[in-house]
Amino acid sequence: MIEKDLLFCNLSASNFSEAIIKMGNIMEKKGKIRKSYIDAVIEREKTFPTGLEVGTFGIAIPHTDRQHVNISAVAIAKLDKPLKVYSMIEPQKKIDINLMFLMAIEDPDGQVKILQKLMSIIQDTSLLKKIEMTNTKDEMYTLIKSTGL
Amino acid sequence: MAASFNVLSVCGSGTVTSSMVAASLKENLEEKNIRISTTEARPMEALQLVEGGNFDFIIFTSPLPAGDYSIPVINATGLLTGIGEEEFMEEVLETISKIKK
Predict the structure, then answer these.
(1) Which CATH architecture has domain A4-145?
(2) Which intervals hold domain PTS EIIA type-2 (chain A) (predicted)?
(3) Does residue A42 sit at the B interface (CB-CB below 8 Å)?
(4) Looking at the domain covering B4-98, what would its CATH class be?
(5) Does residue A83 have a pLDDT over 60?
(6) Residue A23: exposed, middle, or buried by beta-carbon count in 10 A (0-12, 13-18, 19+)?
(7) Could you tell me which of A17, A46, A108, A128 has the fewest CB atoms within 10 Å of its CB?
(8) Where are the domains of chain B?
(9) ipTM for the whole complex
(10) Closest Cα of chain B to A138: distance in Å?
(11) Closest in A48, A90, A108 to B12, CB measured
């Protein structure tokens, strides 16, 4: 499922929305998402943010409803510097994130296996650490590909 | 036949994250021979669904609006991140053990 074009090593963005737009634009260019997807993700973050603290790691898993998705895909970014994102479980709390998983899931009920694979990746702190230390898109690709995603 | 439990799984969009934790809980409980059926929902839908449905407990990853849910509500963020997963499973098992079927 993972595609090299959807990986971003040292993505530079001044805020979280800008990062979503940069990643989403490539997803749109590749036909994965509809035009409405990016705005829908950003809008959803305002009410239901997706920042997660995984041990000492801060990550975010922005996503939205299936009607904005053409083909399931996930874009993964290692940020060049941490960005502030609100916490999923405590929406008033801001956390610093270094990694983003922008998820476009066409059929969440039918694609449980993909979701579980993504879950096992975000839970794997040693893998997250390795992704954080990568310097190229190729290194990121090799690491993530090895998980079977 | 073993009892089966109805679980309402709540997340922000009512699809992606709730499906993740529902599938994971289902798998964890199957290992213990406990069967559940899950329904995914958004936070704003939860209270109405609980009032109209036959749910045994709720798991959530986005905060639930205040209300009288009358059934146990369990924070499932630990299941999502893996941090605090054991505590989450303990809470679920304790909740299940108290439900009379």
Answers:
(1) 3-Layer(aba) Sandwich (3.40)
(2) 1-147
(3) no
(4) alpha beta
(5) yes
(6) buried
(7) A46
(8) 4-98
(9) 0.89
(10) 26
(11) A48
